[in-house]
Amino acid sequence: MNGVQTLSAIENRSTAVIIADQLREGIVAGTFVSGDQINEAQLAERLQVSRGPVREALHRLVQEGLLEGRPNRGVFVKEVTRRDIAEVAEAREVIECAAAEVITSMEAEQRDRIAEALVAATEPMAAAVASGDRDRLRRADLAFHTQLVRSGENTRLLRAYTTLATEALICMLHFGDSEPDDDLIASHVHIAELMRSGDMEAVHLALHEHLSIDELDLHSHDEETLRHGRVEG
């Protein structure tokens, strides 16, 4: 019976999950754009499935905030607002800084290993820049930041960041039309090297600058305390 041990478990995903994954990927890739209507009947016919799993898949994506139901009209791809983009950037900064607090408090040897892994994570980004592949670059960019959060060894932070991942990719799609260049790679390498240094204040400022979007500025800091918050008018 030893041969049984060589077999892999069969992936068991429901039809609704598979449909949701396909739709999610289509939204991230821009195949479905903001405001597009997702017709349940047409989708079921196209996928050759009953409407039950399609309805469940749409419900999943509504819960994730990628689709929205409009009374008496149907289900639509949620329109990404300027505030959505800014809030995702803010949430990413808070989570990444929390992970960085853990990393910068580690021993130098651990920080070195993490920094080297983060520098290595810029290689797929460099390849995407060289080929001009924006979609590949967005995904590699987010993979770098996810690796940073994972290095903080806090499963709750990673779970929260992973939840943001799809929205982050969509926001990059809406606010990432500039030509990819080597400066982007350099900024990520800089963050990795600051992790190595253990200087949390410098890390925080670098992450804030890296993730901020000037045109969509909702987030600010008290310059002396680096406290997260909003400027009150």
Automatic annotation (TrEMBL):
Regions that span the bilayer: none
Gene3D superfamilies: GntR ligand-binding domain-like, Winged helix-like DNA-binding domain superfamily/Winged helix DNA-binding domain
Keywords: DNA-binding, Transcription, Transcription regulation
Any Pfam family matching the protein: GntR
HTH gntR-type domain: residues covered: 13-80
GO molecular function: DNA binding; DNA-binding transcription factor activity
Protein name (database record): GntR family transcriptional regulator
Record lineage: Bacteria, Bacillati, Actinomycetota, Actinomycetes, Micrococcales
